[in-house]
Design goal:
The protein is α+β, with helices and mostly antiparallel strands. The protein folds into two domains: about 15-190, Electron Transport, Fmn-binding Protein, Chain A (Pnp Oxidase, Chain A); about 190-219, no CATH class. Helix content is about 20%, strand content about 35%. The chain has five helices and nine strands. The chain has helices at about 25-30, 70-75, 120-130, 145-150, 210-219; strands spanning about 20, 35-40, 45-50, 55, 60-65, 80-90, 100-115, 150-165, 185. Strands 1, 2, 3, 4, 5, 6, 7, 8 and 9 form a nine-stranded antiparallel sheet that branches. The longest helix is centred in the middle third of the chain and has 15 residues, at about 120-130. It is globular and about 65 Å long. The two termini are about 35 Å apart. This is Flavin-nucleotide-binding protein. Pfam families: Pyridox_ox_2 (PF12900). It comes from Flavivirga aquatica.
């Protein structure tokens, strides 16, 4: 079982009993989603922005315009951090301070480099699209040279990471357990609704199978 070494950077201090440093568990959290919250500094101001990402092995990939200030700031700093979080439930307790949520979150830290090789860039962009919905890249128009040249691709090599998972019920004070107040968990799940075709789409073009597969898996 491969784990990240615990350090001052990745150590979970509050709720340490819910922490994991297991690489496979962290990768599972990353792979379920495709949006991460990336932190960076611009003009000495801390900023966090949601970004689409793809994962290949121990690499996380981000992309944007060649003038994207976040990506340029990351490259200048040569380091990055990103958090991915999935909300699984509202934990409603008998007192306000014991309200919580069930969740899976992973925070990763790594070194950042720019990818310039056009073949590698195209494979990375395929990874990012397919992280959103599997098998999508093969069904769309191929990327052209102008688009590829105008896209900045950043690779973050994961050096360390940690995850925190809460998957339990209400934890109330013993003195509150007999209060006439409802307590419990409201499970939350992100679902897909039936695909809506673009208004300008030719009426003879059907919804592709990979989109229907995604809908059926997540409805």
């Amino acid at each position: 079982m491969k784990t990240h070494e615990i350090s001052e950077l990745n150590k979970v201090k509050r709720g340490a009993n819910r922490a994991t440093y297991n690489v496979e568990e962290i990768n599972n959290i990353l792979d379920v989603g495709f949006i991460g919250y990336v932190g960076y500094t611009f003009n000495k101001k801390a900023i966090t922005i949601p970004m689409a990402y793809g994962r290949i092995g121990d690499k996380i990939y981000l992309h944007g315009s060649k003038k994207n200030r976040m990506l340029l700031a990351l490259l200048e700093n040569k380091e990055a951090s990103m958090t991915v979080m999935h909300l699984d439930g509202l934990v409603l307790a008998r007192s306000g301070l014991h309200h919580s949520v069930n969740y899976r979150s992973a925070t990763i830290f790594g070194n950042v480099t720019q990818i310039d090789d056009p073949i590698k860039k195209e494979n990375i962009l395929k990874c990012v699209v397919d992280q959103m919905i599997s098998r999508r890249w093969e069904d769309i128009r191929p990327i052209n040279e102008k688009e590829l040249n105008g896209t900045l691709v950043v690779e973050m090599t994961i050096k360390t990471a940690s995850a925190k998972i809460r998957a339990e019920g209400v934890i109330d004070e013993k003195s509150d357990l007999n209060l006439p107040i409802w307590a419990g968990v409201v499970p939350i799940k992100q679902i897909a609704k039936f695909p809506v075709s673009d208004a300008l789409l030719d009426e003879n073009i059907n919804i592709p199978q990979h989109v229907l597969d995604y809908y059926n898996l997540n409805k």
